Automatic annotation (TrEMBL):
Belongs to the aerobic coproporphyrinogen-III oxidase family. Its EC number is 1.3.3.3. Pathway: Porphyrin-containing compound metabolism; protoporphyrin-IX biosynthesis; protoporphyrinogen-IX from coproporphyrinogen-III (O2 route): step 1/1. The record marks H173 as: Important for dimerization. This is Oxygen-dependent coproporphyrinogen-III oxidase. The active site is at H104 (proton donor). SUPFAM superfamilies: Coproporphyrinogen III oxidase. It comes from the Bacteria. GO terms for molecular function: coproporphyrinogen oxidase activity; metal ion binding; protein homodimerization activity.
Amino acid sequence: MDSAAVKKYLFELQDMIVTRLEEVDGKKFRRDSWDRPEGGGGRSCILEDGNVLERGGVAFSHVTGDRMPPSATAHRPELAGRKWEALGVSLVLHPRNPYAPTVHMNVRMFMAKNDQGEIAFWFGGGMDLTPYYGFEEDAVHFHQTCRNALAPFGDSFFPKYKKWCDEYFFLKHRNEPRGIGGIFFDDLNQPDFPTAFALQQSVGNHFLSAYVPILERRKDTSYGERERDFQLYRRGRYVEFNLVIDRGTIFGLQSNGRIESILLSMPPLVKWRYDWHPEKGSPEAELYEKFLVPRDWI
């Protein structure tokens, strides 16, 4: 098992995604390299106030530490206290147009080593889509591409990882999903390192084909104040999930991570309302009734 190969792949993946998004938006990302005093560092690529993306962040990190944070050992208490390293690319894109969905993607690897040099590793990640106005063709395309990413590894992976995504990206305090899901996986170390790494690569490599066609289809749709207002309201759910539930955010905070990089997923503008509900029969109500429900899209 070789973390250098994973690091090389993830750094190149970040470059590939940022380059393609710059082509879509027409503006350049800021590339911000940083070091972590405790060990490691990374590069955060951020675009704010773009032509298409109101805010987009694509972050690469490779960080190390002497003791695994509690969030990383919740399911592996036997690894508490070990030295560790974590590598990953994580992105969140918040388009300006309310008809274009927000998207999240993350691929990562952890390694933990004890005093005898024994190494434990696991991969995780996935991608999920958060629309503000739902379109069946977008949902089908996104889920079909997710299935294509996993198909070479067997038929069981997509239904398992889709279900995992539906369950993970769920706001229990609201009793509603964050979006229409996609795929999510964690703790992957079987059957061996090369196969688990290959699956992670396939997920990362399918991101652009899953999302960019949707973004290009919706980015120029005409909208008004009503649609913009609803978009900002629904963005509040995104903030709630990331700050209250998301394991990646919690890990970053517990490991004394770089705050600017951890919170680059936050939307630039957002609003909350007290006990608000969409008007029956409205396009906003349709999001809740037809899209924010468990569905097999393909």
